[in-house]
TrEMBL record:
It holds the Pfam family GCV_T. Residues 265-317 form the Aminomethyltransferase C-terminal domain. It comes from the Bacteria. Residues 11-233 form the GCVT N-terminal domain. This is Aminomethyl transferase family protein. One of its GO terms (cellular component) is cytosol.
């Protein structure tokens, strides 16, 4: 989704102040019924049995062949669950969940995405705004947790689920009240930021952007470095296929890289990586980092060169593989007041 919001302005807000994000079109699916817990366990790549009410787990929805459908935030709401997926993955997730629900008895999956709009404030100062909507100290809100609060006679689901490495909070507002809430957040000092600014921040912290890194063809969690989201100790759709792929070892592995300081052009997806004139991989996604003043990105490379500190060429430009994250966020070590 493209917007007319200036990328530089949005980036500065997200990294150094408070950015205001509008995640319009976010997929929201409520899972209810006696079979809700079993369904969520079958659908997601990580075991959600440990979740207590108010806690959130991040997981993947996989096809039977082990390829990725979507990334999901699983909110435990007592005996029910709310699954949240990124807007670009909403339609695929909706079809996937509907199909899977037909195989699990005593469960209903309701698409409630049209009832709400998801707004977010992210940045080292964002907690100053988010705390105005909480009835308890914001310092006691753990990462990946949520609470429901009242605002202007409406329920707001407020979660701490940032993806920039800075403090970050989402607000699920009733659709009819979202414009009013957005205006109020802006009046409180949040500056509007678009998806491109958010994408840069995500890359700097290595929060995978599936729609940009995964590409148009089917891909597995291991192609984008999300093996940590796959728990092979529990049964879920796609487990056996994913386990076979993991045990066999993918032909190529994801790496992070940083271009030489003289490089300013951002390479396209698919640009080849060369060592000694031999193609050893291809760019998955790349951005210009204003904080680092460097072009940075990810790539999939032959396993033999999938290590930190390897030098190669991209479009005749020198680059080196590095360990993530690319930088230390402004919020690191900063206490919540």
């Amino acid at each position: 989704m493209k917007t007319d919001i200036d990328v530089s302005t949005g980036y500065r807000a997200l990294r150094h102040g408070t950015g205001l994000l509008d995640h319009a079109g976010t997929g929201l699916f409520r899972v209810a019924g006696p079979g809700a817990g079993k369904f969520v366990g079958t659908a997601s790549s990580r075991n959600a049995d440990f979740l207590l009410e108010g806690q959130i787990a991040v997981a993947l929805l996989l096809r039977a062949n082990g390829t990725v459908v979507a990334e999901a935030l699983i909110h435990c709401d007592g005996a029910e669950y709310l699954l949240e997926v990124w807007p670009a993955q909403r339609d695929a997730a909706a079809e996937h969940l509907r199909s899977l629900a037909e195989t699990v008895p005593d469960v209903t999956v309701t698409d409630v995405g049209e009832r709400y709009r998801v707004l977010a404030v992210e940045g080292p100062e964002s907690y100053r705004i988010a705390k105005k909507y909480l009835s308890f100290p914001i310092s006691s809100m753990a990462y990946r947790s949520f609470a429901v609060e009242r605002w202007n006679d409406a329920d707001l689901l407020i979660s701490r689920t940032g993806v920039t490495g800075e403090y970050g909070y989402k607000l699920h507002a009733p659709a009819e009240a979202a414009d009013e809430l957005s205006a109020e957040l802006a009046e409180l000092g949040a500056q509007r930021a678009g998806p491109d600014a958010l994408d840069i921040c995500r890359m700097e912290m290595r929060f995978v952007n599936l729609e940009r890194e995964g590409g148009p063809d089917p891909f597995t969690p291991f192609d984008v470095g999300l093996q940590w989201m796959v728990d092979f100790q529990h049964e879920f759709l796609g487990r056996d296929a994913a386990l076979r792929i993991w045990e066999q070892g993918p032909e190529r592995s994801p790496i992070c890289w940083k271009a030489d300081a003289s490089v300013t052009a951002v390479p396209e997806r698919g640009a080849p990586l060369l060592i000694g004139g031999i193609v050893v991989g291809a760019v998955s996604h790349a951005v210009w980092s204003p904080s680092l003043e460097r072009v940075i990105g990810t790539a999939r490379v032959d396993r033999a060169v999938a290590a930190s500190g390897v030098e190669f060429l991209i479009d005749d430009a020198q680059a080196r593989s590095i360990s993530a994250p690319f930088l230390v966020p402004s919020s690191f070590g900063r206490p919540l007041e």
